[in-house]
Amino acid sequence: NNRFGTLSYNDYLEVTHGYSDMSTEIAFDKENGLKPFYGYKKGSQYDNKYGFFVYDIANDKVKELSYKEVRQRSILDYNSITGDLLLSIEVYYNGGHTNPQEFAILNGDTVTKIEGKYKFGKFSKNGEFLLLISEENEAIIKDIKTLKTIFSTELKDGRYKIYADGDRDFLISNSYYQIDPFNCNQSTLTFTISDSNTVETKTLDCLNIIDVASKGDVTVLSVENIGLVIGEKIYKFPLSEFPEKISLNDDGSKLMASFSNGKIKIYTVDGLQPVLEMIHPDKDSHVFVNSDNFYFSNTNPEDYIVSTQDKKLVPIQTLEKDYFNP
Question: What's the burial of 310, exposed, middle or buried (CB within 10 Å: 0-12/13-18/19+)?
Fold first, then answer.
């Protein structure tokens, strides 16, 4: 049942749950299906109750996080383990017009200001650490409990993307603003935090990471102009059908990838074998094809999939009539 089939997300949230989402800067978390937002709980006509909430798409529930009045209302990150919200007044974008911002952490009614101004910030998955990129392009890792800096390093000025990796580690991908014609002008910096809170870094030259997915000991990278990297194996993809968003299932055995041409595919992580392919021509139309060549569609499948018999193209309707594979 596509619960957003007739209503948009915002309309569904308001009609079904009585909440309005005013946040546009943060999307659903691909690992847990949670979307934090600033908005209001509908009351009487002039009595809406403003605050921070989180919507759980899997369980179709809204949780109230805080009604504390704060200056910072743009959500940069949320950790569901600790309940911490990382906030700023505005959102900084690479190449945008917003200046670096003052950040704050909100948990319940407790507001903790972070000294300085920053471009980006990200909690570790276990909620124990915070990675920041300052206005001076310095990467800073802080212990959340004390907000003491446990590590810092200068970065080349560029377009940054930051990721949490594993329970307590981070990645920063950087495409440099200053172009050197004799070098590749991009790199990824890894941060591995030990149990004693020491930080080891490694620079991966010429790798610009688009997305990261990790579960346990399994980590998958989507790397610009290359494709997917799983451990020491590299799987190349053409730019016409390139994996832009990736995620893993709970045990890390299956990978879901969203492609540049709109397709969504599921693979086994071991050997990257296809399991299922999904095509969504629009919000109401779907075509599903699995590795056994069974398909389901609520639209004309011949517009999107090809059928063959004895290496010759055959109309899908003919195969349906002869073999009926629903």
Answer: exposed
